[in-house]
Write a structure and sequence with these properties.
Largest sheet: 9 strands, mixed
Strand content: 25-35%
Radius of gyration: 22 Å
Structural class: alpha+beta
Number of helices: 11
Distance between the termini: 36 Å
């Protein structure tokens, strides 16, 4: 610790990272008597008018229910656009999967929200939190684990102490490395382009995922008949795609996606992201736990990244609220958290990574088996049902944690 630091507040739980998962965890712990702190690198979000340049998030059924229970959905400027159907296909292969929510006993599989609006909704909810102390903008300079706490030095010189440090800094988390949790990285050799597009035809609430030899393409339903498009290209082509004008980019997207929604007429500003899988080797350490993108950053195929991170937050909040008398940083409790998250985490990582690899193969035997698999899922509802429930996040433990969240702490 530096000599100029001043002793600051003491917390039961200090969350470092005010992104979507870190903020959701803070909201989930607000009703408890625990002393909660939140350190955010950026100043609290300011109100900005909507634009055509909007990134979007596909939230599964459990995530929507959880955000509703947290009082976040009520703060959204625009209600989530419901996903009433899913259409999966592979270019050049004969099989396809068409899923309809009503056939699985629900009105929607989930919903699509504008990422900026979800951030603003969380900010509005955080303002109403009664047991939350925020440091923003602020950055962590160092963290040292002590016997009964972690001493966290901020760039302001203030030193905070916490019984449990929650690392929610995102993919390239400095604290994850500093506290020895380790990381594994895999570069997919792909770049993801995200943009909002206006098509000719109504999307009817259908989310499309199309696999091509150059990577997946997805179109998510948005309000106003717009779609949120996701286009993956080999990294070697990223610079040339960045250089395309709007007409050229729409032509490429049309070629890759097809004509299911008619002609694609207009496109917003494009954002580009390198595709990689980054996972923490350990999700817990001495008086610390890692959640969200700091724990695992996935390929966006299957749209499971934020949904998985939110389940991290639900699980941790449930455990902390269930045994308030216990030290939040108790090794046994942290071990229990790691055990409870292990299966869901491994399955979801393997699912997204496996899909990213499966649809890259162009050999005839693989394509044949892939087509047969898609056709079987399309025609036999019993085969698709477990996959659908998993994609909606409806596993028994997560539902139990959500139910516990709804009860007073």
């Amino acid at each position: 610790m530096s000599a100029h630091m001043s002793h600051g507040a003491t917390f039961d739980v200090l969350i470092v990272g005010g992104g979507l998962v870190g903020s959701s965890l803070a909201c989930a712990l607000d009703a408890s008597p625990l002393r909660i702190g939140l350190v955010e690198a950026s100043a609290p979000a300011i109100e900005r008018p909507p634009s055509f340049d909007e990134r979007n998030l596909a939230l599964n059924r459990l995530s929507l229910d959880a955000l509703h229970a947290l009082g976040v959905l009520a703060q959204l400027d625009t209600p989530p656009a419901p996903i009433r159907g899913v259409h999966v296909s592979s270019a050049g292969d004969f099989g396809r999967v068409r899923l309809r929510a009503e056939e699985h006993g629900v009105d929607a599989f989930g919903g699509v929200v504008i990422a900026r609006e979800l951030g603003l909704a969380l900010e509005r909810r955080l303002v109403g939190c009664v047991n939350l102390a925020r440091r923003a903008p602020a950055r962590v300079v160092s963290a040292q684990v002590q016997t009964d706490s972690v001493a966290v030095e901020l760039d302001s010189g203030e030193c905070l102490h916490t019984r449990l440090l929650v690392i929610a800094e995102g993919t390239d988390s400095p604290l994850r490395a500093q506290l020895g949790l380790g990381e594994l990285r895999k570069d997919y050799g792909q770049t993801l382009f995200v943009s909002v597009v206006q098509p000719d035809r109504p999307h009817a609430g259908v989310a499309y995922e199309r696999f091509t030899v150059d990577g997946p393409v997805a179109c998510l339903p948005l309000a106003g008949g717009r779609i949120g498009s996701v286009l993956t290209v080999p990294t070697a082509q990223a610079e040339s795609v960045l250089g395309l004008n709007d007409a050229g980019y729409l032509e490429l997207l049309q070629q890759r996606f097809g004509w299911r929604l008619g002609r694609l007429r207009a496109v917003g500003r494009r954002s580009a992201y390198p595709m990689r899988l980054v996972t923490a080797e350990r999700t817990v350490g001495s008086r610390c736990v890692v959640v969200g993108n700091a724990a695992q950053t996935l390929h966006p195929i299957g749209a499971q990244g934020f949904n998985l991170g939110l389940r991290d937050a639900l699980c941790l909040a449930s455990l902390l609220r269930a045994q308030l008398a216990l030290d939040p940083g108790d090794p046994g409790r942290l071990s229990e958290y790691a055990d409870q998250r292990a299966d869901d985490r491994a399955r979801t990582i393997d699912f997204s990574d496996g899909l990213a690899g499966l649809f890259c193969h162009r050999s005839f035997p693989v394509r044949l088996l892939r087509g047969l698999g898609l056709a079987a899922l399309d025609h036999f509802a019993d085969l698709a049902r477990p996959l659908v429930r998993g994609a909606m996040g409806l596993n028994p433990r997560a539902l139990e944690q959500l139910d516990q969240l709804r009860r007073p702490a």
